[in-house]
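Input structure tokens:
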């Protein structure tokens, strides 16, 4: 299990934060999360997201500054938190998401927003009986897919100041859960055991006929070191095929490199796509470069490394044309990221041709 004791500095900061809340210096109703994990645009709003809190509406000013408008609870339809990785179906314009509760059941709740951004009814996932670290998920035309890992969440650790909020459970078998996107309960949710599959980020999923789902995700080996010895964790990009009729699961590692934090052309979310752009590095999340993976050929087709002592963040695909749904080629666009030169102490915004980012 992950264990340890918070340092005295952490305890002092915690006490100081509690004191500021009690004295009225911090209003929890206005938010408490960092909202620094990802960005999403739906319901005509640009949102900054972090899974420990609700989304925050932000605006970009004419001067290029970013201003925070405020925390958004979807007109009091959503409480406490929401995933940092919602998925928008570009065909229906609906957005699918989930929230996680580390203490109270249901520990996972699935929901969606219609094309106008109006939240629909919650679907509690009661078949998860222990809070499990679920950071990301996927959608297809008919389904939503969740991956349970071997990391369980221990609220007691947080409340007692005992160490990390997650504990590694070696006897737990990871599994993938599949539920209809428009289900009203989890009564027909199907779970498939996938030993060793500890999924972190999920890049896409699609249906191959009526009986098979294909899932693209990174999986972590030595996941017990995720939060305190990240250099000992290796992330692999996998293609996972799940046969809904037979229950058989087939896994294929597409690259031996240490890959994480990638993106696809968002118009292909929930549909079969060919390319994914991944960050590569020895110590995630300090990315040393970007690679382009061809999911059809199941090979790496191009790469770019940033140079000595230069590290980047998450590579993001941006379509060349605004109406990217009509683009002739899936990779017709750019891959962008920020990189930092640790020797010269300079940062740059890098723009690469997505067809060949080398």
């Amino acid at each position: 299990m992950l264990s340890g004791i918070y340092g005295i500095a952490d305890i002092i900061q915690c006490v100081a934060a509690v004191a500021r809340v009690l004295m009225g210096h911090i209003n929890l109703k206005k938010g408490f999360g960092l909202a620094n994990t990802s960005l999403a645009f739906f319901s005509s709003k640009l949102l900054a997201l972090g899974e420990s809190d609700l989304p925050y509406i932000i605006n970009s000013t004419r001067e290029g500054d970013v201003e925070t408008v405020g925390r958004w609870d979807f007109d009091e339809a959503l409480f406490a938190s929401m995933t940092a990785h919602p998925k928008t179906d570009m065909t229906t314009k609906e957005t699918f998401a989930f929230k996680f509760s580390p203490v109270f059941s249901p520990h996972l709740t699935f929901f969606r927003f219609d094309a106008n951004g109006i939240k629909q009814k919650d679907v509690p996932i009661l078949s998860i009986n222990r809070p499990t670290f679920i950071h990301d998920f996927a959608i297809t035309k008919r389904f939503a897919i969740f991956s349970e890992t071997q990391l369980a969440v221990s609220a007691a650790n947080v409340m007692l100041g005992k160490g990390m909020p997650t504990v590694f459970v070696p006897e737990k078998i990871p599994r993938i859960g599949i539920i209809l996107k428009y289900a009203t309960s989890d009564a027909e949710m199907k779970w498939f055991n996938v030993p060793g599959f500890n999924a972190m980020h999920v890049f896409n999923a699609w249906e191959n006929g009526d009986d098979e789902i294909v899932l693209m995700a990174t999986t972590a080996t030595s996941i017990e070191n995720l939060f305190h010895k990240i250099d000992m964790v290796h992330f692999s990009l996998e293609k996972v095929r799940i046969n809904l009729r037979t229950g058989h699961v087939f896994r294929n590692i597409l690259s031996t490199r240490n890959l994480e934090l990638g993106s696809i052309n968002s118009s292909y979310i929930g549909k079969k796509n060919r390319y994914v752009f991944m960050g590569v590095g020895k110590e995630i999340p300090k990315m040393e470069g970007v690679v382009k993976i061809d999911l059809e050929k199941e090979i790496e087709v191009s790469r770019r490394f940033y140079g000595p002592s230069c590290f980047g963040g998450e590579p993001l695909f941006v379509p060349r044309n605004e109406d990217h749904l009509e683009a002739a080629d899936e990779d017709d666009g750019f891959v962008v990221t920020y990189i930092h030169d640790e020797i010269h102490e300079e940062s740059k915004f890098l723009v690469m041709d997505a067809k060949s980012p080398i």
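The longest helix spans residues 8-22. The helical segments are 8-22, 155-160.
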